[in-house]
Design a protein that fits this description.
Strand content: 15-25%
Shape: globular
Order of helices and strands: EHEEHEEEHHH
Distance between the termini: 38 Å
Helix content: 40-55%
Largest sheet: 6 strands, mixed
Length: 175
């Protein structure tokens, strides 16, 4: 049984990848999915990359059903994004936490359209990381370097690692 709890904004940090991330994401996917909503686990926790340890999920809705997906997340206990610079309303992110096997995990639920370009980029990026251990190591090293500069704010941390992610995506040539 999954019970979503309030999100707790924490400083950016580095945690080694653990297989429990896959278990948490699977349990959340089962809890969130409906006949009209699919869930994709993406990001570092899906691709065996250490980092903040936040579980990123794409909440995949059918065209024209974004508000239904957002309402569904609210009904489950998700809250509006905890950020000074939230995603735009046409591509929202909702936040929550969950206690799983006695440990609290933060969840970012990205609401995107099924079969969209962004969905295909997320899938390609995840698979590329899984297929290339050297790329995973370089990504982890990038994260360590950002933290070594004293960056702790999550929004600033994400901006600092964005060039690495964009560079990898550009090499994948995914639209």
């Amino acid at each position: 049984m999954i019970t979503l709890e309030p999100y707790q904004l924490i400083d950016a940090n580095f945690f080694p990848w653990r297989s429990i991330y896959l278990d948490v994401a699977q349990a959340l996917s089962t809890h969130i999915s409906t006949s009209r909503i699919d869930v994709l686990h993406f990001g570092s926790t899906s691709a065996k990359v250490g980092g903040k340890g936040i579980i990123d999920l794409s909440i995949l809705y059918y065209p024209g059903e974004r508000e239904n997906a957002v309402d569904h997340l609210y009904a489950l206990g998700f809250q509006d994004q905890h950020s000074d610079q939230p995603f735009p309303a046409h591509r929202p992110r909702k936040d929550a936490s969950v206690t799983y096997q006695g440990e609290r995990f933060l969840i970012h639920a990205h609401v995107i359209e099924k079969d969209s370009e962004e969905y295909h980029r997320q899938l390609a990026y995840k698979q590329h990381l899984l297929d290339n251990p050297d790329v995973r190591i370089k990504y982890e090293n990038t994260k360590h370097a950002i933290l070594a500069q004293g960056v702790r704010d999550q929004d600033v941390y994400v901006k600092h690692k964005a060039p690495y992610v964009k560079d990898v995506l550009a090499k994948l040539n995914v639209k």
